[in-house]
Amino acid sequence: MLCSQFKAAASPPSAKVALAAAGMASLLVLASAAPAPAGADGDDILPVDAPQCMGEDATIYVEGGARVSGTSGDDVIVAVNGRDVIDALGGDDLICTFGSGSDDIYGASGDDRIYSGAMGGNIYGGTGSDEIHGGPGNDHIYAGEGRDTVYGGAGADNIDGGRDGDELYGETGDDLMRGYHGEDSADGGPGGDRCFNTESDTSCGTIRKR
Q: What pTM, to 2 d.p., does this model score?
């Protein structure tokens, strides 16, 4: 998987990265090219309210475009606006992205839930049984290994089922869905959808128009 090649980099100018630690208030680390205010050395930690993903408080928060890595545990990652690159690493992670920008999301290992509200981008489920929701733009979704469930959302999406038996739902838009190893099923939803199977046990014939 491409996520194994991803290395976290410093946040770009004006990007905000917030971290919430167990038993502590949410924390905000501000990385900016602008001069630090009086009394600050650029490494100050400031309290902020934690945003939420599907009703759960974020443990990692990105605003304005950044590259960020999760932990080996179960993370709740929220990214808002800008082009973000997220590598969730290990654990059963919950990831939400919102606003403008085209994001790259790597679920990596674990049974992850990914909700993209960004305007298109690339989503890599990685290993584990993942639930992936594309956003309003044109997404390219790679489910990866494990029994995954993928919802393309709006837009002309490109969905690759990956290994094992997956459920693929194109939803609205003209979607392209590919089934690979495993007993996959695909439901195109509204729009001019196409489905290709690379293995004889991929039941692309279950595509239905609503």
A: 0.74
